[in-house]
């Protein structure tokens, strides 16, 4: 059974979820506000249903999202602690994952114990995928918006304040604070519902975006003074090296949002980040203002994502990867400029 369809049959989805008594919620490594917020949104609903439910992620909770964790609901996967519980689960729900390998070790554990997996996501997945239930809505601004749809469908009472805190966080972060082209009426409806239950939304904003570490600011100073422009400034790119990370004493989450920042430059249509992971691979991040799609370039490099926000992991050393990726990206954007 697979529900890889748009619009989604929430009735069929609800039957699967209602039938499960024990459920694990999870999201991709290095989780963002959408994955975490979606988990939180559904978690409190399932708790009300007296389900045996836990949120277990591969990565620890980033500090700027600690406001979601007042009840200590986020656990970091440890096979010694969790496998005994996981092996008897009825259902795993994975949010916002894009690619199942991005739950890392948890994917192996889930497969080993042969647990049914429901994928709830707004990233594209091939029709032939490894999920028992594939719930994908490419038009959803955030996975959290899909959780909102589900709770609206399934609940008799209003969505709880605890759930809305997560759903709002998911929506706010995946729309760049209601600025990106994916922002739609539903995002604002979620904002209204959130304000109506008395959540101070500006505090969510402050926790996430006005909490920069000094390492992040130091890193920013480094890469901003060394931006590279191609195609008369339509393409801007930069790299973050392991040395820069080390000098700034930065962690991975300090890099979040850098590509969006570069896209904000006047005349730049596509921004590209090359983030050195080690000596043999780099993470590539694309952001487009909306004139030129970029997930085709990410696909070509073995990655994927949304039309205007995509990424890939490319093997090779920094110099080789940079040369290759900039060349492919510039060629692709130039081709699209001709067609415009
Ligand atoms: Mn998302």
What is the SS-derived class? alpha/beta
Oligomer: single chain
The overall pLDDT average reads: 95
Question: Rg, please?
Answer: 20 Å
- In percent, how much strand structure appears in the residues? 15-25%
**Ligand list:** manganese (II) ion
The H-and-E topology, N to C, reads as HEHEEHEHEEHHHHHEEHHEEHEEH
Q: Determine and state the CATH class of the largest domain.
A: Alpha Beta
- Level of helix content? 40-55%
Spatially, the strands of the biggest sheet line up as 3-2-1-4-5-6
* Largest β sheet strand count, sense and barrel closure: 6 strands, parallel
CATH architecture of the largest domain: Alpha-Beta Complex
Question: What is the compact description of this entry?
Answer:
This protein has 340 residues and is an alpha/beta fold. The chain has helices spanning 10-19, 33-48, 79-86, 105-112, 143-154, 161-174, 185-196, 201-209, 214-224, 242-247, 258-263, 295-300, 318-339, and strands at 22-27, 52-57, 74-76, 91-95, 117-121, 133-136, 228-230, 235-240, 270-278, 281-288, 304-305, 309-315.
């Amino acid at each position: 059974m697979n529900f890889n369809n748009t619009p989604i049959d929430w009735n069929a989805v609800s039957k699967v979820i209602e039938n499960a008594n024990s459920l694990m919620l999870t999201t991709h490594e290095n989780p963002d506000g959408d994955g975490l917020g979606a988990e939180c949104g559904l978690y409190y609903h399932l708790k009300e249903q007296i389900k045996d439910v836990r949120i277990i992620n591969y990565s620890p909770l980033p500090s700027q999202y600690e406001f979601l964790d007042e009840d200590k609901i986020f656990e970091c996967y440890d096979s010694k602690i969790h496998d005994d519980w996981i092996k008897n689960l009825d259902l795993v729900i994975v949010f916002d994952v894009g690619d199942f390998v991005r739950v890392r070790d948890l994917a192996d554990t889930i497969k080993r114990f042969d647990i049914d997996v429901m994928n709830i996501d707004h990233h594209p997945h091939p029709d032939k995928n490894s999920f028992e239930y594939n719930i994908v809505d490419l038009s959803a601004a955030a996975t959290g918006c899909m959780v909102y749809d589900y709770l609206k469908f399934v609940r008799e009472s209003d969505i709880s304040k605890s759930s809305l805190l997560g759903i709002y966080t998911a929506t706010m972060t995946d729309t760049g604070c209601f600025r990106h082209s994916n922002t739609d009426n539903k995002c604002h409806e979620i904002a209204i519902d959130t304000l109506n239950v008395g959540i101070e939304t500006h505090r969510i904003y402050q926790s996430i975006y006005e909490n920069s570490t000094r390492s992040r600011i130091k890193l920013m100073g480094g890469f901003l003074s060394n931006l590279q422009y191609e195609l008369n400034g339509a393409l801007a790119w930069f790299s973050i090296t392991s040395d820069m990370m080390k000098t700034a004493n930065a962690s991975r989450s300090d890099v979040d949002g850098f590509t969006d920042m570069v896209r904000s430059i006047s005349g730049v249509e596509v921004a590209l980040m090359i983030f050195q992971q080690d000596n043999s691979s780099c993470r590539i991040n694309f952001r487009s203002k909306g004139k030129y799609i970029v997930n085709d370039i990410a696909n070509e490099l073995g990655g994927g994502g949304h039309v205007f926000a995509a990424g890939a992991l490319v093997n090779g050393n920094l110099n080789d990867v940079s040369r290759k990726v900039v060349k492919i990206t510039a060629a692709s954007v130039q081709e699209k400029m001709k067609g415009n």
